[in-house]
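ENTRY TYPE: protein
CONTENTS: sequence, structure tokens:
***
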Amino acid sequence: MKKLVALILVGVLILAASGCIGGKTPTSTPTTTPSSASSPTSSPAPSKVYKMSVVVGPNSPWGQAAQMWADEIEKRTNGRVKIKIYFSGQLFAGKQTNEFVLLSQGVADFAVGSTINWAPQIPELNLFTLPFFFPEGNEKGDIYKAVDAVEEGKAGEMLSKILEQKGVIPLAWGENGFRQVTNWKKPIKTPEDLSGLKIRVVGSPIFIDTFKALGADPTEMNWGDAITAFQQRVVDGQENPINIVIIPYKIHEFHKYMTVWDYAIDPLIFAVNKKTWESFDPETQKIVKEAAIKAAKWEKAMARVGLDDGTSLKILKEEYNYTPEILDPFEYLKDKGMEITFLTPEERSEFKNKVRSVYSEWVPKIGEDLVNAAISDIKNAIGIEVEIPS
């Protein structure tokens, strides 16, 4: 019986640090996703089956992108490089913050990992969860351009070198999306509205510090327990991305109110163990990287579709021949009965001013040079100078 319970728990363990596990999404897998593709029957058997770690299950865009990456590699190498995906944290028995260690040590050869999950080992990755760091800009979609600028600019280059020094080769950036706050009690428009609210947060110290600074009562809780807590109203609210968590997990059934404040983002990293990478010849390395970029681009577009300036929908249609079922996430949630609050720039600034202590503590841990590089990358991309609250 104990073995049966253990097996069941492994199957249902859910990502605590990003609030997401594989489950049914509101969209189907695109026709261009090679999930149904197989290597040619004439392909030689691989000398080694490589391991890929994925925290989530196979049915979310995150999990689907991991499958896309693995299938594309196997297809283009004619089966020479075959990858077995360990979904739902099977390699680390539910403790998702161990994933980076396993990847760097070679227990896993590949991973599609969350920066939140890897931040305990790589504190510089907390750059992306500095609260309200990324400016929303003057045009719809500017905030995503700011994220891309950091990932593709000097800051991203610095992060890549840090990861490589730890034994991991990053190949492409995916995304869970900007995290929004929901609750069942009332609209949140000012920091005072958060006062005393018990908010389920991910298991990372910077999240605890952020919500304490905002006057809330942050509560760490794994996602499986969180769903039950929402149903029973043990906690008042939670924070997560819209397309990857809030919609597929039907948060509207528990929470009537959502505030769109874009306070933090959770990029994904498509990465390879350094020794595994160096064991590949240049042509195989090229295939592995190109396949990662292809899968990551699709996954990032899925996280952003309907939330940006239309760029992501165009990418999905033109490059992947795919149209998601939900094109306007906000209207979808409104139709489900959610009341959505959009903050003005002035209102968002009020929240940012309340988290001065978070910046004072975390900028030195992240590294001032890295933070300044990100500020420069953003200014070059959208012409906005990021201000650090002091």
Remarks:
- Strands lie at 49-54, 82-86, 110-114, 168-183, 198-201, 217-220, 237-241, 257-260, 265-273, 339-342.
- Confidence is low (pLDDT under 50) at residues 1-29, 31-43.
- The two ends are 56 Å apart (CA to CA).
